[in-house]
Design a protein that fits this description.
Elements lengths: L2 H12 L9 H17 L4 H15 L10 H16 L15 E6 L6 H15 L4 E6 L6 H12 L3 E2 L10 H14 L4 E6 L7 H14 L3 E7 L4 H13 L4 E5 L8 H10 L3 E5 L7 E3 L2 H8 L5 H11 L2 H12 L8 H13 L3 H6 L8 H5 L4 H11 L3 H5 L6 H11 L3 H22 L21 H8 L9 H8 L27 H6 L4
Parallel strand pairs: 1-4, 1-5, 2-3, 2-4, 5-6, 6-7
Antiparallel strand pairs: 7-8
Length: 518
């Protein structure tokens, strides 16, 4: 969503490189670029004016201080001001002193309130160890009650729905009775899903206000579609005046809109963005961290969110066992079964493109990430599943005839099987070296990883040798005749991650140089 804004800001910062001091002309030119970038991202004009004024005031006359060059100085200032307009510090839910805590969702029709109710309930149940209950108080939108029941079942959360909906029933009465139901069944949190409209009107505001008065919510969350641009700010202000709300939830952050609403609502309404929904699955939901969002916009990644996601996904005990295998015997106890388990654990974190996108500098190769083929991982799984237990335990026994059988069983080519086995040995060697504290093979001073850093003396000697004679074994000779995948070139990912045989995927030039490429 923020790709265009990130690109424009990066361009603005590039013009400052190599300068030892910020002049007034530099500051004005950079501020103008940032202003255009924000306006193109659909950020509200009053917010843009206030933001630019704050950046110019702080940057005026700023010499290089604390080891920062002018570009870094401006990035630091812009980052801090972005955090401010996004709400400053992360805001958590207020929980009632005496349960149940009541959370009311409000917003226009189509903003995603019903789905978000299930996401919030699942998040509260799994990460906050609460016992939530969903309340179907949207009795006007066709099948809204049925949708909430389906969402609740997927989230593993009960739904209170005494009325069928579709225009039948009193939502205020449903909300009032839900409180008695929650106390009787000892639910710690009640999430009330209310009706919306295609636009703001008096009937919508009155119904929302009546439900608010009936249940006295601890939190009123305004759910807004992050893709509707400037109108999001207008709608938010109307709800703030008519009903009032305590926090904002941004839905559809995975869209391709310009995303200015996220940068405007907190500043205009004075209410912080508390949660963000960025996908269709119930797991695509998390707390909104202003500092992390600002970091993403500026292309600095979101390592903290990546770490938290990994902690939720990976089994600590299994990870310890894997580390122990890699640290002993040079990693020879690490098998293809272990490799497959690790790969599947990473996939549970979400699409690999999304994971890579959280890394610092990922915006430099976002085009390659967009073209990454997730099905390449499925092909690797198919190849490994086509092996026998003995072959997975000791891939050294996989000869030519075995490779032909595995390729046929997995619907791939012999070269694909050969490439996977070779890259498995390379990856195991690298991970074993890192687990034993020796660092990554192939880095400066640590030769050994093929295609990275030029390799060691042995690799260079092998390059000088001529071609090997063919084997006397017909099966081996046939396999040797099959074109084998070349070792990954400096800065190129292997096929398992979209490189050879898996689409063109180039790392940034700076990273190529760091890894020993040209």
């Amino acid at each position: 969503m923020f790709d265009t804004l990130s690109d424009r800001l990066s361009t603005a910062f590039k013009n400052l490189r190599g300068k030892g001091k910020l002049t007034d002309a530099d500051i004005d030119a950079t501020a103008r670029e940032i202003r255009v970038a924000l306006l193109e991202a659909d950020v509200a004009l009053p917010v843009v004016r206030e933001f630019i004024a704050a950046v110019k005031e702080r940057a005026s006359g700023a010499d290089v201080r604390g080891g920062l060059n002018p570009a870094q100085q401006v990035i630091k200032i812009v980052n801090e001001e972005l955090v401010n307009i996004l709400g400053g510090e992360t805001r958590e839910l207020r929980m009632a002193k005496r349960p149940p805590t009541v959370i009311m969702l409000a917003g226009l029709q189509g903003a995603g309130k019903t789905t978000l109710a299930g996401k919030l309930a699942k998040w509260l149940r799994e990460t906050r160890h609460q016992t939530p209950m969903l309340v179907a108080a949207d009795l006007q939108r066709p099948n809204a009650v049925t949708q909430l029941q389906v969402v609740g079942e997927r989230a593993g959360v009960p739904v209170y729905a005494p009325e069928p909906g579709n225009g039948v029933g009193d939502p205020v009465d449903v909300a009032r009775k839900a409180m008695d139901e929650a106390r009787a069944k000892q639910h710690s949190v009640v999430i009330v899903d209310t009706a919306g409209r295609l636009g703001v009107d008096e009937e919508l505001m009155k119904q929302a206000a009546d439900i608010r008065d009936a249940v006295s919510p601890d939190e009123i969350l305004f759910v807004v579609d992050a893709m509707i641009g400037q109108d999001a700010v207008t709608t938010a202000q109307a709800f703030l005046d008519g009903v009032g709300f305590d926090g904002v939830v941004l839905s559809k952050l995975d869209g391709d809109a310009r995303g200015g609403a996220a940068l405007s609502i907190a500043q205009v309404t004075g209410r912080q963005v508390m949660f963000a929904s960025n996908g269709e699955k119930l797991e695509d939901f998390d707390v909104f961290h202003p500092d992390r969002m600002a970091s993403r916009i500026l292309g600095m990644g979101d390592v903290m969110s990546l770490i938290e996601q990994a902690e939720r996904t990976f089994d600590a005990e299994e990870a310890a066992k894997t580390a122990a295998k890699l640290a002993k015997k040079g990693g020879k106890d690490f098998t293809l079964d272990d490799f497959l388990a690790q790969m599947q654990s990473v996939r549970k974190m979400g699409p690999l493109t999304k994971i890579f996108g959280m890394l610092p500098g990922a915006n430099q190769f976002k085009d390659q990430l967009e073209n990454f083929d997730e099905r390449e991982i499925d092909r690797i799984e198919a190849v490994i599943h086509s092996m026998t237990p003995a072959e997975r335990t000791d891939p050294n026994i996989i000869n030519g005839s075995r490779r032909a059988r595995i390729a046929k069983g997995s619907g791939t080519e012999v070269a694909t099987v050969s490439g996977l086995v070779e890259r498995f040995f390379e990856a195991r060697k690298m991970m074993a070296a890192m687990a034993s504290g020796k660092g990554m093979p192939g880095m400066p001073g640590m030769p050994g990883m093929p295609g990275v850093g030029g390799g060691g003396r042995k690799a260079k000697q092998q390059q000088k040798k001529g071609k090997k004679r063919g084997s006397g074994n017909p099966a081996k000779r046939a396999n040797q005749a099959t074109p084998q995948p070349e070792a990954p070139q400096p800065g190129q990912l292997p096929a398992a991650f979209g490189g050879q045989n898996g689409g063109d995927f180039e790392l940034p030039d700076d990273l190529k140089k760091m890894l020993g490429g040209n």
